[in-house]
2-succinyl-5-enolpyruvyl-6-hydroxy-3-cyclohexene-1-carboxylate synthase (Virgibacillus natechei), 579 residues
Amino acid sequence: MNHIEVLTRYTANFIDELSKNGLTDIVISPGSRSTPLALTASEHKGIKEWIILDERSAAFFALGIAKETKRPVALICTSGTAAANYFPAIVEAYYSRVPLLVLTADRPHELRDVGAPQAIEQIKLYGDYVKWFHEMALPEATPNMLGYVRSKAGIAIYKAEEGNAGPVHLNFPLREPLHIDFSLDNIWGSENEKPFTSTFDGMKKLPDQQVQQLVDRLQRKKKGIIVCGPQINEHFAEAITRLAAKWGLPILADPLSQVRAGNHDKTQIIEGYDAILRSEAVREQLKPDFIIRFGAMPVSKPYLFYVKQHQHATQFIVENHAGYREPAGNRTEIIFADPILLCEDLIAASPGMDVDSHWLRTWQDMNQTAKKHLLSGSSNQVTEGEAVRGLMDVIPTNSSLYVGNSMAVRDVDTFFMTTDKHISILANRGANGIDGMISSGLGAATTGKPITLLLGDLSFFHDMNGLLASKQYKLNLTIVLINNNGGGIFSFLPQAKDPKHFEALFGTPVDIDFGQAITMYGGSHTVVTHEAELKDVLTTSYQELGLSVVEVKTERTENVEWHREKWQAIEQELLKKGE
């Protein structure tokens, strides 16, 4: 058997096994050394290949697909710094628990450390940011080695999805010639074969005795809150709201919790808690006996201040599998269990909680006060908060909103109120970076589901080359671009008081006409100045195909003042009512 046949059968068996284990999407950045992997992935009828030229964009594109589909996505690139450009998205995938399979081609061992071109150290290139690394054997096509390569493909899928999902890395040393011969017989193996390795993995569940112990402890406490942080299970909202109804407790729901939208009961959801908890005096009035948090730490910094201020309250954090996400540094008890099963068990084990009925009503009244101020008024020039408010009014049901970091996600936290629409909220909140956002949004758009991307001008600038995927694949994406000519979030921080260095180091204006870049990539571009105009333009964009960018130009100083006026009005009314 010659080299080309060996290479063909080796790579074809690997790619076929990925497909047999459920992989449907592979994102490829073209290059020479990765030719065998790229060709076989493109040839396999069960896999959709996406060709994204820039590796950093490609990795975030794959991240977006995986976030939207909740399935593993593979990446293929050539050797050298191409693989290094995956790093930011791999870090994000690790912390946000997104399954990615990173398949890097490499020089064979004899071409390493000898000055060969495009050769860098790729062994464990991503360090602890991948759940599993494996250096693949040099290609062979014996039955044992074809079994080996299928085994590693199956293990890679399992490792990416097992427990807390995340990225895995397989490095492929490949010798030239790199051609593939698809005329060979039966390179994929039997179409009817099951996966080479099958796995059965159950969900974590607390024993009945531990559930009862938890209920007994909490029944003696009068004032509790349920906190729902970022998580992706669309069935969680129904379970948690039933538990809250049974126990008579408020739910502080982060916008990324998937709890604010849908047709479940929302009467106990407190979506205005970020505005409520900005006042230290109000936080003191809301002293809890216990806190149960599901999901990651909420976006809201005032909530962080709240739990620090009440560090002596009994606090629980529910994790699906493993991990410790408690940045407040409080004494905390971690519950490792499937959150939906835990809710069901707690409901079944508790006849009812002896809670303070005034406690829930207090939270609900404060929430109504906050919403009254946040939803009122209309400025002559649309503000960033009004832009989010208008967006949430017209965004279609059964769609996804992909939110950028910095101010974008915080304004969604503040102005995204509960709705009966079915809207998934996605964000790259693992490492909270502003890079790769356009690529992530376009990756999510590959499903055909309506996707709206909300981001700031610096995030847009960081990933403008990601727009090529929209033109290349005719993807439909509506982008709401909040352009305050710089890093608007820094205007809320103490750095803003340093006039000498603020603009250069933190404000960072780019003074770019984004319309030219959008036109270059075949998109439509509209600048709006009023909330009503924004709604009209967005409504139209959802009926059109392709890339549509709606730009909202704001002024950073005015935006800070507008937000602070809202927060101060809420604080004053809450404190007056509490007298």
